[in-house]
Amino acid sequence: MQVNMATTKFCFCAAVLLIQFATARADGQWNNPGGWSKPNDPKWGPQVPPPFWKDFYLTFGQHVVKYPGTPTGEVGHEVELGLDKTSGSGFRSKYPYLFGRLSMNLKLAGGNSAGTVTSFYLASVFKHWCELDFEFLGNVTGEPYILQTNVFAEGKGDREQRIFLWFDPTTDFHNYGVLWNQDLILFLVDDKVIRVFHNSKDLGLPYLEYQPMYIYSSIWNGEAWATRGGRDKCDWSKAPFVASYTGFDVDACTVETGADWEIHQCYTKLFNSWYGDAAHKNLTSQQVDDLRWIKSNYIIYDYCSDTKRFNTTPPECAVNWP
Ligand SMILES: *[C@@H]1O[C@H](CO)[C@@H](O)[C@H](O)[C@H]1NC(C)=O
Ligand SMILES: *[C@@H]1O[C@H](CO)[C@@H](O)[C@H](O)[C@H]1NC(C)=O
């Protein structure tokens, strides 16, 4: 069951990446980030791109995307991705990043969100790709979302973990992101570590260390598997389902051309940055406590303890839980 689910997800993601890659190329957006779509409203003004468009463009589902103003009147700092019966929607960063702290504030679809999947992930585009996933699986009204995370290194994934959150992710914005350096990757929720992936090259495992990754997000129909294994379907009378995003800042190394010298520069930046300094090479004692707290209270699935799926426990499991 779990394995089937994981395989479905694996194929889906690979397919989406290929499609998005192909689409971007076909549209000429690959080399022309200005090819993002703008809403058709004169009040946005044609010249100065608002912050969202500066760093991102839509990949699909433009007709279900909205750009509301914030309470302080800023327009373009928030985006609402929609899902209706005809389409989901998504965006991608203009450039990929190599190392840094990358996060966004998300408010998930409320009410009956069963069958919906809201993803926020980083992914590279090489053949043996790298990916860091957050996937939010919706639920019927009053029941909790599941947050599923996964790590792909050089094309090898199958590292799903699932947790319940300690708050309702549909009432307010919360921050989700990663800290990524040469020693570890932290999955962060409101700056609390929910998962760590250490560099385990000493155990013979590939690490995410040279492929820059784009930021992606999308909301899509996952009713075949997402909620209680597919038993709860999307209630289309409640559509569109809307996920809101704001806070697009990233503190990371942007890779514009992918040339060797740029990758090299990202290493130089890493070694001179706060996110690559000695204090961030390992978990702090607070982070160790946080991870133990997650493990004893919120974990509902962990590939590391799925003995049906793996005859031998994957080697990184021994180091990734404190
Ligand atoms: C939805 O709620 C049910 C009942 O509380 C729970 O078993 C399930 O894990 C929740 N989440 C999803 C995505 O199915
Ligand atoms: C990182 O911290 C853990 C737990 O605090 C410790 O067991 C481990 O040896 C540390 N690793 C390194 C490379 O310092």
Q: Care to describe what's here?
A:
- The protein is of the alpha+beta class and 322 residues long.
- It has a single domain (2-320), classed as Jelly Rolls.
- The protein contains 5 helices and 15 strands.
- The chain has helices at 2-27, 51-55, 260-271, 285-297, 317-320, and strands spanning 56-60, 78-83, 89-93, 97-107, 116-123, 131-137, 146-152, 161-163, 174-180, 184-189, 192-198, 214-221, 241-246, 250-254, 299-302.
- The chain has an 8-stranded antiparallel sheet with strand order 1-3-12-5-6-7-8-15. Strands 2, 4, 9, 10, 11, 13 and 14 form a 7-stranded antiparallel sheet that branches.
- The two termini are 28 Å apart.
- It binds 2-acetamido-2-deoxy-beta-D-glucopyranose (2 copies).
Main β-sheet, spatial strand arrangement: 1-3-12-5-6-7-8-15
| Proportion in helices | 10-25%
Gyration radius (Cα, Å) is 19 Å
Number of strands: 15
Number of helices: 5
Number of domains: 1
Mean residue pLDDT: 86
Shape: globular
Order of helices and strands: HHEEEEEEEEEEEEEEHHEH
Oligomer: single chain
How far from one another are the termini? 28 Å
Class computed from helices, strands and strand pairing = alpha+beta
Function: Catalyzes xyloglucan endohydrolysis (XEH) and/or endotransglycosylation (XET). Cleaves and religates xyloglucan polymers, an essential constituent of the primary cell wall, and thereby participates in cell wall construction of growing tissues.
Family: Belongs to the glycosyl hydrolase 16 family.
Glycosylation sites: 139
GO molecular function, one term: hydrolase activity, hydrolyzing O-glycosyl compounds
